[in-house]
Amino acid sequence: MDTPDEHSVREQLRSVEDPDLGDDLVSLNLLNEIEIDHDQEVVAIDLALGAPFSPTETAIAAETRDVLELGGYELDLSASIDRGLDPDDLILPNVQNIIAVASGKGGVGKSTVAVNLAAGLSDLGARVGLFDADIYGPNVPRMIDADERPSATAEEEIIPPEEHGMKLMSMDFMLGEDDPVIFRGPMVHNVLTQLWEDVDWGYLDYMIIDLPPGTGDTQLSLLQSVPVAGAVIVTTPQDVALDDARKGLKMFGEHDTPVLGIVENMSTFHCPDCGSTHPIFGEGGGRQLAEDVELPYLGTIPIDPAIRQGGDDGKPIVLEDGETGDAFREFVRETADMQGIVHRNSQRQRSPENPL
Between 321 and 154, where is the model more confident? Predict the structure, then answer.
């Protein structure tokens, strides 16, 4: 091949298609920049990919490497996404994706889903933070066996402890054992602001925020203060949970926050003794809700005593072998893929070749 130039590289990249958006990288405006250093014989390409370690974006990057013929030049491939926001105005400028895990009501296993989502992303290789924003009932530290308390820098910045490759912050660290939290609304906002502004999170690919159930002060503070990239709605199959899940969906819609999809927890119980399946809380409600509101269905999580055991022991089941671990891993992959679609679709809308 001749010495590469920007035009030839760009034309080669027209053969790489986004399987979700159905067009090539150039037409979709997913090519941020091409720089060619002829002295060093390096071609540097920056793609508009924003969901690190998602299966689809990993495959897009791999295909990009495969199709390029650079005549002996070395390829330097990177990925970045323009969120359309001034970094100086962001509370968490070094966090690429903030994903809120929410539910309309308590008791649906939202914290379990949040913990396993964070642990699953970390296990894929991502840099992950887990923020336990349930001010009144913080229990995430127990669920990942986080005994270490935060430390502080000389500048009084909080250094979060790490477990399972994740950085963790929780109101639970600020309390004595068994102490209740008795806060009014303004105090909730002040505490949350301190917990995410005064923490040295470093650079993160993902921050997973475990919200309390409902649509109250914590949710409002989050959506008004932090650039949430996507939300995951957790429900069980039963009608009571589905009714409240719809309220959660409406809350995010009113704040223009993308909802990545719906995950159904506690879907069925597989009896180890008789071998049959029992839909204890109903069947198919989460999938039907996703269809009704035209949102992605992110996965089905069964009722499994091992999930409860893993939560009590601080060992997320997404890190374990078995069908239930597989179900969580599939949910993690679907969620990361959906976050990527949200970013890439936003980038496409800015493309002169695809005016929307």
Answer: 321
